[in-house]
Specification:
By secondary structure, this protein is mainly α. It is 67% helix and 3% strand. Helix 1 crosses helix 3, helix 4 runs antiparallel to helix 9 and helix 8 packs antiparallel against helix 9. The longest helix is centred in the last third of the chain and has 26 residues.
Length: 232
């Protein structure tokens, strides 16, 4: 299977959804382990995990601790739906930023109080991946989204992670667009990286107020960059 496009997780999610619908993975069955799925669909673990998070958010699968992922029956799937905003529409960008302010601002504060050493290490790795991409003149939107999702996980509240998994599929395109725009602007990748570093620093210091403030500054700055008509 060839998935050579900027939206690999979305395309993989669609392929997995189709295979579930076709009965390749029957209701109640356990999905193959990560290496097998990666080999079958020709994707990396990062792409697979993003696609699996989206499937989970859509209510197609559930993850059972220590056992793996299982296909859910249609009756068990979530009825909640969220209309994707247009990434190129200024009003939609601002509206999504307002939603992110509340969710991610509080998530950052909780993460500062509750994060584990392993989660802190993962956030540090996300920062490294983003810095490496910036240094190479590119943009790692996956690492950016992973950074925000890890913060949601670090809250210790599964509802934040589920909501971020669901919401993430809609603003992943906004993050990608913002990253691509930043990569074309001299000095801007460093600004974006400093915003992420400020969030990380507050979480590392376990300062909820600072983490919330840093996250809100970043979200609004990203929205302004994306909504700007002629460059960031």
């Amino acid at each position: 299977m060839s998935l050579n496009s900027p939206s690999l997780p979305e395309r993989l999610m669609q392929a997995l959804s189709a295979d579930i619908g076709a009965g390749r993975y029957p209701v109640g069955s356990q999905l193959p382990i990560e290496p097998a799925l990666c080999e079958h669909y020709g994707v990396s673990r990062t792409v697979l995990r993003e696609a699996m998070a989206r499937l989970k958010a859509e209510g197609l699968i559930e993850t059972r601790q220590g056992r793996g992922s299982f296909v859910l029956a249609p009756s068990a799937r979530t009825p909640f739906r969220f209309e994707a905003p247009a990434a190129d529409a200024t009003a939609s960008v601002v509206e999504l930023a307002e939603l992110r302010l509340g969710v991610e601002g509080t998530a950052a504060a909780l993460a500062a109080e509750r994060r584990s050493p392993a989660q802190l290490d993962h956030l540090r790795d996300c920062l490294r991946r983003m810095a490496d991409a910036d240094g190479a003149g590119g943009a790692d939107a996956d690492a950016d989204l992973d950074f925000h999702r890890t913060i949601a996980e670090a809250t210790g509240n599964g509802h934040y992670r589920l909501f971020m998994d669901y919401l993430g599929r809609f603003y992943a395109s906004a993050i990608e667009a913002a990253r691509q725009r930043s990569a074309r602007s001299t000095g801007l990748p460093a600004v974006v990286q400093r915003e992420h570093l400020a969030i990380f620093d507050a979480i590392e210091r376990q300062s909820p107020k600072a983490a919330e403030a840093a996250m809100k500054r970043h979200v609004m700055a990203a929205a302004r960059r994306l909504a700007a008509p002629d460059g960031p």
